[in-house]
Amino acid sequence: MRQIPDQALTIRARWVVLISAFLGLVFDGIELGLMPIASLSVSQSLLGDSYTKQLGGEWFAWFTAALMLGAAIGGIVLGNLGDRIGRTRAMGISILFYSLFAMLGAWVQTQEQMLALRFLVGLGVGGLWPNAMALVSECWPTASRAWVAGLLSAGLNAGILLLSQLTRLYPVEPNAWRWLFGLAGFPTLLGIFALLAVPESPLWLAHSSRKNQSPSGSHSDSSRRFALSALFQESMWKSTCLAMLLAAIPLVAAWSASKWMIPWADSIASSTDASYKSATQGWWALGATLGSFFGAQAAVRLGARWSYLSISVGAICTTLWMFLGTEPLQASFLPTVFLQGLVTTLFFGWLAVYLPSFFPVELRASGSGLAYNVGRFATALGVFLAGYLLASFGNSYPRIGAACGVLYGVGIFASFAIGTGVLTSLPRDSQDGKS
Questions:
Q1: What residues in the chain have per-residue pLDDT under 70?
Q2: How far is CA 163 from the centre of its chain?
Q3: pLDDT tens, 175-194?
Q4: CATH superfamily of the 11-203+230-430 domain
């Protein structure tokens, strides 16, 4: 890791940080989009004659839940690690985790082996977001937060878009899916580069130096080790709880509801068009890439409360219409998928703008990691329950998707907690706009 002790990085160093973090999030997005595309093919291949539609849906839920559980743990543990050993080291470790364990999926022989690997991949997927966001926000302190946050949020969905286009050219089928997992090991090179060559955050270096030089420096290691407990001290617990709630709503709804669109498309169109599921993911990812970017702009222009409220209303309306108002192979389906992806991912631009600012610099990666990934614990449970309840909905993907899509409506009520005394306890830079 190349440390730069001066408070200001050179232009070249800042671009290295931004490009590395962006690419890390692009590959992170590929990992998030991999199993929605490959899950049914993997299950058909590994289960053989015992495969059924219900089993395919249940295993899709299990794979997703394992990834989310790993991401939740990884976001908290590796986010805390970023506050202890530095943003770039934790970012590099996160990338190595998700790329190496994803690559091992090319050699699995059972569903259980794949399940374990998806959990391990999730550790890296969850760890990257808080460290990349904290690193870039601290290395680009004078840049437009909406622009930088929007760019990084778009990176995740740009990865899903890239994956969808690749799998349209080379469809993933029961007899051809292992190559995709082998290819997922490519970001290992980026992880090594992050460890060796990406500059560290000057803010983190300065804070670390002050800790080590202070009279109480002997306690610095223990204070970092228990950074998570500091998030629930009297001065912080309201901010932390609000951040966790606002991050959980779009995550739980997205993974327990929205992601059913791809196996739904696969189950209907696979016999006539093997690439239709990739087209579905591609249209969604195109909308999501735009939504993630412009969500940051909307968050700044409308303010915290009104932007979150507006996005919540739009998300529940577009999700219910996607599952109940159209269906795969109809002319209206792919445009609706695009619109749903655009609207529901506005949330993540909002989170990229506001979430890091909920916490002081010494707790920023820990706090962001906790807030963002507590939602993934709930997501893992929600996805598992959705898969378990699939049979109760007649194994109907649109019915289970619509039922879980109602969760977006919780955001309407949660938005009224913003700016009613809780938000005023946050750092000033989280209160811009009309909040």
A1: 1-7, 143-145, 210-228, 365, 387, 419-435
A2: 16
A3: 999 999 999 999 999 999 99
A4: MFS general substrate transporter like domains (1.20.1250.20)
Contact indicator for 351, 120 with CB cutoff of 8 Å:
no
- Which SS3 state, helix, strand or coil, does residue 176 take? strand
- Provide the 10 A C-beta neighbour count for residue 400: 25
For the chain, give every domain's residue range. Answer: 11-203+230-430
- The β-bridge partners of 176 are 173
- Tell me if 435 sits within 8 A of 416, measured CB to CB: no
**Hey, what amino acid is at 229?**
S
> What is the pTM assigned to this prediction?
0.75
Phi, psi of 396 (to 5 degrees): -95, 115
pLDDT at site 7: 54
Q: Which residue's structure tokens are 């050993």?
A: 85
Tell me the two tokens of residue 302. 């409308």
Whole-angstrom distance, CA of residue 263 vs CA of residue 286:
18
Q: What is the pLDDT of residue 286?
A: 92
